[in-house]
Design brief:
The protein is an alpha/beta fold. It has a single domain (3-193), classed as Maf protein, CATH 3.90.950. The protein is built from eight helices and seven strands.
């Protein structure tokens, strides 16, 4: 059964201003409302990797809990970039973006995207992990990318679908869409079982 048929009596809400996450739901043929709030993306220091991504998706869902009505399904999510025990959030400025890309250059890192589906009856959260392998990036390439694409809204200071991904990423293991910010196949499956 198609998801649109399964969800016909449900009202989907995407709690994200991300154009990429919005496009993913449109690509699945879903109708949804967008609601956004300013939410501080902080987490307990003892968390690591996937725990951080899931914690943040749940925390975002919690901010909408009181306003959810019967029949509504809220979708929240988060994406983090990890290299060993280091977590790369969104860069605050160009210097931070340069530092991040230099640390990712020539090495492997993981992109973990989480999602949380909430209704008045239940909450389900999950994540997916993709390994990404960058070639050695020159400072000229890094500067060009940051100046042209302003990746300050992206964890790890890059978008795989942009110029840097096309010239700099030579291999991934896992879902491409997960690196773009949503474990789409898992969201589809979770919605179809919700």
């Amino acid at each position: 059964m198609l998801l649109t048929t399964h969800l016909k009596n449900r009202h989907l809400i995407l709690a994200s201003g991300s154009p990429r996450r919005q496009q993913f739901l449109k690509d699945l043929g879903l109708e949804f409302e967008i609601r956004t709030k300013e939410i501080r993306e902080t987490y307990p220091a003892e968390l690591s990797g996937a725990e951080i991504a899931v914690y943040l998706a749940k925390a975002k869902a919690e901010a909408y809990k009181e306003e959810l009505k019967p029949g509504e399904i809220l979708i929240t999510g988060d994406t983090i970039v990890c290299q060993n025990d280091l977590v790369f959030n969104k860069p605050k400025n160009k210097e931070e973006a340069i530092t991040m890309l230099q640390q990712l250059s020539g090495k492997e890192h993981q992109v973990i995207s989480s999602a949380c589906l909430s209704s008045t009856e239940k909450t389900v959260s999950f994540y997916d992990k993709t390994s990404v392998f960058f070639k050695d990036l020159s400072i000229t390439e890094i500067n060009f990318y940051i100046d042209q694409y302003q990746p300050f809204d992206k964890a790890g200071a890059y978008g795989i679908q942009e110029w840097i991904g096309k010239i700099g990423i030579h291999r991934i293991e896992g879902s491409f869409y997960n690196v773009m910010g949503m474990p789409v196949n898992k969201v589809y499956k979770a919605l179809s079982e919700f």
